Amino acid sequence: MTFFGSSAAPAKLGYAVFTCLVLASAGCTSVVQSGDAAGAKGGQGKVGAEHVGSVSPAGAAKPGSGPAGAYGMLAAKAPGTLPGTVAAALALNERIKSASSNLQLAGVNVGIARSGYMPSVYGTGDLGDDGAADAEFVVSQPLLDWGRTKADVAKARALETASKEELAVERERVALEAAQAYIGVIRSEALLALAKDNLSALERIAELAQGLAQGGLGDKSNVEFANVHVGEAGATLEEADGALVQARSVYATRVGTQPGTLASLPVIELGKISDLRAAVDAAPAVVALLARGEAAGHAAKTAQAELYPTLAGEAFVRSEDNFGGLVVGARLRGKTPTYNGASNLMRVEAAELASDSARSAADAERRQATERVAVFQSQAPALKERQTILAKQLESARALRTTYEEQFKLNQRSLTDLVTVQGDVVRIERSLITAKYDYFNLQYSAAEALGVLLEKLMGEKRPAQDQIAQPKPTAQPEKQG
């Protein structure tokens, strides 16, 4: 229809534009809904169907709430425990904050991709040589894009899945790093205590040698021999003290505070894993890489769709004769892709290669996680049995040392015998400490590889980024002695 008259042209132009927008957008709601349904059904794939979770900007955690706030509260309530230490590290770590932001961005990108189903509005204008102005306002609704928008939405959802799982990966890694720092401090404290006990024992032996020499039952060479071992024990003590300082420094870097008195390590149970492949496939690191591969596959579909022309329905308002008349109408517009050499085809190939690369990375992650779990499964029984055997040997060695000391006082044992049995006590106890904390390191590493370390330590099953409940310690402390 055409409007004439220059005095009312601006008002009529505004009315015509409004009418055009209403008419062109009348069927958009059903188009978007049907398009989303198709995308969710056909473009999401197995990974997306199981793991996708939307995060909108409105769902962003407020300052003082969300994961950082909940973890901070747990760290304050449970200082000096492994769950409290892990919570403090989670609240502090910048990698988690970055991954959380990436997840929010991925949720926004899903909305951006879905906007491809919506109409677009644009305007053009020009000024002729004669001073006459012409303008056109257009509402364009995509009708045929060969599945490009559907692939874009599926790609965005797969990337959202990847971001969600990558956040879980970072949480697990930070938890493992904090646990390893905690173990490092406790191990170093145990070795320092052993070094102090060794020095005290050798000093006592040196005093016994000195007393025997003064009583005429020994010579000065025994005293010098004992003092040599006392000096070695002092050097070992200095090394152990330096190792503890370093372990405490690592702890402070990862957790944000200096360690105080630390509780014993909690015992977690991985349980019997009947299907290791399925357990590894459910690990967040593997799921994230598979989702990246799926996103690359959808990117290849997008690149393929861009090889074909598109079709859109347009409603327009066009001014003529310097806004003296207006024309409202509708039309179909086709658009061919712009070909720049073979780059269009190369983009398809590049996306397919990216998909293959992500799948290969997922396979590599599977193998690595499987190896870590298999190492724990194979070595755990031996380490537990070794601890039992070493504990019995240590008890026997300490009893033998007491006997040797009494016999040495009566000049029935040589100083060499007494020093030798003291060395046996130190060696056995050091081996027991190593076996004990190696077991915990392997156990926690296997749990992190499966993505269940936080669940085992704190009862947390990979919560949504903006819906975290305050975690509670569930692991039982290790029995002392």
Strand and helix map with partners:
Layout: E1 2-4, H1 9-25, H2 28-43, H3 45-51, H4 66-77, H5 82-92, H6 94-114, E2 120-127, E3 133-144, H7 148-214, H8 220-255, E4 266-267, H9 276-281, H10 284-305, E5 310-320, E6 325-335, H11 343-409, H12 415-449, H13 453-458, E7 476-477
Antiparallel strand pairs: 1-6, 2-3, 3-5, 4-7, 5-6
Helix pairs in contact: 2-7, 3-7, 3-10, 4-5, 5-7, 6-7, 7-8, 7-10, 7-12, 10-11, 11-12
Verbal overview:
With 481 residues, this protein is of the alpha+beta class. It has a single domain, classed as Outer membrane efflux proteins (OEP). Helix content is 67%, strand content 10%. It is built from 13 helices and seven strands. A five-stranded antiparallel sheet has the order 1-6-5-3-2, covered by helices on one side. Helix 6 runs antiparallel to helix 7 and helix 11 packs antiparallel against helix 12. The N and C termini lie far apart (94 Å).
Total helix count? 13
Element pattern in H and E: EHHHHHHEEHHEHHEEHHHE
CATH architecture: Up-down Bundle
- Tell me the structural class: alpha+beta
Write a concise keyword list for the protein shown above.
Outer membrane efflux proteins (OEP); 13 helices; disordered N terminus; disordered C terminus; 481 residues; 67% helix; alpha+beta; 5-stranded antiparallel β-sheet
Could you provide a short overview of the structure?
With 481 residues, the protein is of the alpha+beta class. It has helices at residues 9-25, 28-43, 45-51, 66-77, 82-92, 94-114, 148-214, 220-255, 276-281, 284-305, 343-409, 415-449, 453-458; strands at residues 2-4, 120-127, 133-144, 266-267, 310-320, 325-335, 476-477. The strands form 2 sheets. The protein has a 5-stranded antiparallel beta sheet with strand order 1-6-5-3-2, with helices on one face. A two-stranded antiparallel sheet has the order 4-7.
